[in-house]
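As a warm-up, study this chain.
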Amino acid sequence: MVSMIWNIFIENSQNCYKPGGNITIDEQLLPTKVRCRFTQYMPNKPDKFGTKFWLASDVDSRYVINALPYPGKDENRPSSVQLSEYVVLKLMESFTGCGRTVATDNFFTSKSLATQLLAKNTTLVGTIRSNKRELLLIPKQKKDDMERFSSKIFTTDNCTLIIYKSKPNKKT
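Now compare it with the structure written out below.
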C-alpha cells in the first residue's frame, strides 16, 4: 500500500514538472521516532535517526523530480553494481538522453558512473574521494607539491580531473 502511494507521488511529480539542464543527486534524512527495520543512524546529521531518501532535484527550482527510499539492502540491485552507481542510474532513468548534467557528491562520483552516463548523453560533475581505486597515484603526489589555491588539470578522451588545493599541507 505504501509503495503504491509512493509510486503515484513520484509519477505525479515527474508529470507536473520538466527539469532544466542541471540535476543534483544527494541523500536526505527525514527525522522520525518510529522504530522500524529501515531507520538509519547518521551521526553527522542534525537529526541522528530517520528514514533515508535518495533525491534527484532540479538545480534551478529545487523541485524534487525523483526519489528513492532507502530500506536497506535492495534485492533488485545486481551484486556487481555498486550502490552509488545504482542509485544515480535509477534516479536518472527518465532524464537521460537530453544532454543534461548531473551533480553529485563524493559518495556517488566515479569514473565508471561518468562513463555510463556519458553513453546516455548525460554528463557528470562532482567531487571524488582521493582514495578511489580508479584514480592514479599521480594526482595525490602532485597535490602535495602544489601551492595553496592552485589547480592542476588531467584529461583523457572523455574525462577531465581537476585537482584543487584549498588547504595547506599538514605538518608532520
